[in-house]
Amino acid sequence: MNKFGIVMLYSILLFSNQIFGQFNALEKGVFSGSFESISQWYQDDNKIIVSVPQDKWATNNYLSLHYTFGKFYAGLQYEAYMPPLLGYSRKFDGSGVAHKFFSYRGDFMEITVGDFYEQFGSGLIFRAYENRQLGIDNALNGVNIRLKPSDFFSLKLVYGKQRKYFEESNGILRGLDGDLDIIKLFKIQKNIGLQIGASLLSHYELYTGADPLFPPTVNSYSGRLDFNSTRLTLSSEYVFKESDPLDLNYFWYKTGNALLLNAAYASNGLAMNLSLRRLENMDSRSERTATDTELMINFLPANTKQHKYSLANIYPYSAQVMGEIGGQYSVFYKIPTGSLLGGKYGTKLNFNYSVYYGLDTTFLGGTQGFESKYFAYGEELYYQDINFELDKKWSKAFKTVLGYMNQRYNKAQVDGGDYPIVNSDIVFFDFLVKFPKNRSIRTEIQHLSTKDDLKSWVAALIELNINPSWTIYAADMYNYGNAGEKVHYYNVGTSFVKNVHRIEISYSRQRESLMCVGGVCRQVPAFKGLTLNISSSF
Q: Which helix (H) or strand (E) holds 442?
């Protein structure tokens, strides 16, 4: 490990406020930035299968610096992986300036040269973004132009290459995206909104093979329509992708498409949401041989409820980009205060149902892949989740959350391998007690019952909060139903917050699993050891 590099990063953070404060005093503009460091120390463990690296210390570090002067904005991000944390690609190993950019922001035009993030529509066709927990950073290095010629029309243009660790992709991306506000265009004086949008994205990668029919350029097209009123919101988006042979789709010469429909209604304590989605051959990369989370062009999260409780995330669903059809329906209702069931502080009810199936397909053989019936469900269930939560505040000092979840999880499809569908029932009880002098204790008790896979689990957490600075916690997940050795997966730690600075230290045993953030997942290995998180902004 390069200890000198770590010392330099912490020194920059320590003196940043003083240094940038001097610049601000001279009225040369405004400096700002952030720093994040995640370090782990790994230990051997004879109860779980762990792959302890030769260097048992690993650390990911990110330092971002931004400078604003009038309509001009510039920045850079320095990253150091010495070496990268377990679960991150070893291709991150090393350090250097990962991002640098310069921007001009005017009323009519914004232009960025360098590294930037951008999104068209919901991201079904294109999204460049960063998620450090998942090791995703597919920023574009090139030019991003945003035009606003009127209050009813806007246009985005992008051109560049995606980030590939500390290098760039071989592929080139070019895109155009426009939004038109119909209500503002025709100056309709009603409390409604109506927007239409369209996108074009093209990616090119040099092909040197012998097949004259192989497409080096792949174009994607999308259209969307959004309507909103006081109580009702409707949106739709459709994407079509030309033939796009990739390593991850068996180099099929097959087109792809995606359809997303959303509806939401809210009135007097009642809210309902319906989301339907269909994907077919929608894995899109700027290099044909990219794998895992490398060089993803579009954003395809799981369109299901994202659970916050540990046992509910043992079997998380991730989008099946080769083909899936389904959606989710949610109902939120607040029983009025003062009623028999609402009580003095009201009661909140939350119901969600999510389900996904494979497509109804016919395989064609060769490089054609398959054909499908568009609105038909296949016979294979991928995922089903029926869950209910009751959130009740009993007094100013006592609050509870009670929940139940029934899940059917096609482990063979989502995780790979030869597994049956896992049928499970999960119950959880979460209660918060507040004490004088800004102190509180939050406790979770969970149980997962199943006769499949690893069998049943129990979990508990206790968390002491001494506001505004201290949190102390201890958690444990115990796989008591496993026919083999029974294992405790524990996590004990504390965190301290002071203004914009935060430090957390924990000691844990972590199971091998899919880790999902916002519905996007990556595989993380098992480990035991110490974790130190430091973050700050200035």
A: strand 439-449
Q: Could you give the CA distance from residue 398 to residue 136 in angstroms, rounded to a whole number?
A: 39
The DSSP line for 475-504 is EEEE-TT-SS---EEEEEEEEEEETTEEEE
DSSP state of 132: G
Yes or no: say if 171 and 207 are a contact pair by the CB < 8 Å rule. Answer: no
Q: Which of 290, 320, 289, 281 is nearest to 304 (CA)?
A: 320
Q: How far, CA to CA in Å, does 183 sit from each of 150, 151, 152, 155? A: 13, 11, 8, 17
How many CA atoms does the CB half-sphere of 538 hold within 13 Å?
20
SS3 163: strand
Pair of tokens at residue 359: 């497509």
Phi, psi of 21 (to 5 degrees): -60, -35
- Burial (CB count within 10 angstroms: exposed 0-12, middle 13-18, buried 19+), residue 189: exposed
Rg (CA), the chain: 25
- Per-residue pLDDT tens digits for 361-408: 999 988 889 999 999 999 999 999 999 999 999 999 999 999 999 999
Q: Which is nearest to 427 in space by CA: 449, 451, 399, 443?
A: 449
- What's the pLDDT tens digit per position in 77-123? 999 999 999 989 999 999 999 999 999 999 999 999 999 999 999 99
Other beta carbons within 10 angstroms of residue 262's beta carbon come to 18
Burial of 349 from C-beta contacts in 10 A (0-12 / 13-18 / 19+): middle
Supply 25's token pair.
Answer: 């005093």
Rounded Cα gap, residues 518 and 461, in angstroms? 23
Average pLDDT, the chain: 92
Separation CA 14–CA 19 (nearest Å): 10
| pTM, full prediction | 0.90
Question: Where are the alpha helices (H) located in 334-490, listed in sequence order?
Answer: 411-415
3-state secondary structure of 405: strand
If one counts every other C-beta atom within 10 angstroms of the C-beta of residue 108, the result is 9
**Residue matched to tokens 């009661």:** 347
DSSP E strand boundaries for 44-152: 57-69, 72-81, 94-105, 109-116, 118-120, 126-128, 130-131, 136-137, 140-150
- Nearest-angstrom CA–CA distance, 472 and 452: 34
Q: How far apart are the first and last CA of the chain?
A: 27
Question: Which residues contact residue 292 at a Cβ distance below 8 angstroms, ignoring those fewer than 6 apart?
Answer: 89, 522
Amino acid identity at 40: Q
Nearest to 156 by CA among 178, 125, 141: 178
- Token pair for residue 17? 């406020």
Longest dimension (CA), the chain: 75
Q: Cα–Cα distance between 426 and 66 in angstroms, integer?
A: 46
> In Å, what is the CA distance from 19 to each residue of 100, 394, 503, 535?
20, 50, 22, 19
- Residue 369, number of CB atoms within 10 A of its CB: 24
Residue 304, both tokens: 């299901």
In this prediction, residue 418 has a pLDDT band, given cuts at 50, 70 and 90, of confident
